Amino acid sequence: MPTSVRIENQSLVVDVCSLGAEMQALTSKDGRSWLWSGDATFWGGRSPVLFPIVGKAPGDKLGIDGQDYPMGQHGFARRNEFVLTSSTATACRHELVASEATRAIYPFDFRLVVEHSLEGNRLTVAAEVTNADSRGLPFGIGFHPAFVWPLPGAEGKEHLVTLDNGGEPPLAQLEGGLIKPGHLPSPFEAGQLVLWPEMFENDALIFSEGAGTGLRYGPDGGPALHFTFENLPNLALWTKPGAPFLCVEPWHGTAAEIGRSNDIMERPSSQMLAPGGMARFSFTVEIPA
Q: Using CB atoms within 10 A as the burial measure, which of 75, 93, 104, 266 is most buried?
């Protein structure tokens, strides 16, 4: 059965479940709740880790070395039980290693470690992928945290996403869960995007490049979350129209492209990790005091 661990400091309290190493709650010590509750009426997730793919594969089949393997959207890590390997007052680490069940659909030996850690009013969620195989390890990885919309103390205010780099990244669209060819003009203006529910009627907004390494989510002049990203060049924003949350999703990898093969290495931003190699990915979110 899944178990839960709590970490906390003078500012924040975080609960993490062993199933998927998924954060279940992010709360200020004054009681303000920042993470989505996981109400299945809209979406039962809260903050899943996506591995070994991000997004969908054509026909839910992933091509590896010329052979097809069944692979659901966003991979299998979020549905697997992790082992808690260490825990302190302010940090915890969970680990998932290859098993007979994972090798049947992803024929590699790997280790995936997910760490949640607190420092002041900042939470960092990091993933480390290690190739324990004798051949290259192809994969994608991403984070899918959902935060309340509106934010506490910002009810009735217009919320924005503001990119630290002031960029206007082109928009990639999904069709049937796959990336459509080409890009649309950016919905950002001078790095700012005003959020409104109807913009998500055609699924997530995906920015394959140019979104930079940090952003702010919240109203002008009101409480806001600030994010920084490490080794995560792709960004998605998503909600279900009318749902009271926004997912801020930094990725290294996206869904497969329409018209391309299902080969894992043809997926945008897929990586190949050498035997014995390790790669780290993380996001940090700063919570208003």
A: 75
DSSP the chain: ---EEEEE-SSEEEEEETBTTEEEEEEETTS-B-B----TTT---SSPEEBS-SS--GGGEEEETTEEEE--TTBSGGGSB-EEEEE-SSEEEEEEE--HHHHTTS-S-EEEEEEEEEETTEEEEEEEEEE-SSS-EEE-EEE--EEESSPTT-TTSPPEEEETT---PPBB-EETTEEPSS-BPPS-BTTEEE--GGGGTTS-EEE-S---SEEEEE-TTS--EEEEEES--EEEEE--TT-SEEEEEEEE--PPBTTS--BGGGSTT-EEEPTT-EEEEEEEEEPP-
Task: Please name the fold of domain 4-286.
Answer: Beta-galactosidase; Chain A, domain 5 (2.70.98)
Report domain extents, the chain.
Answer: 4-286
The model carries a pTM of 0.98
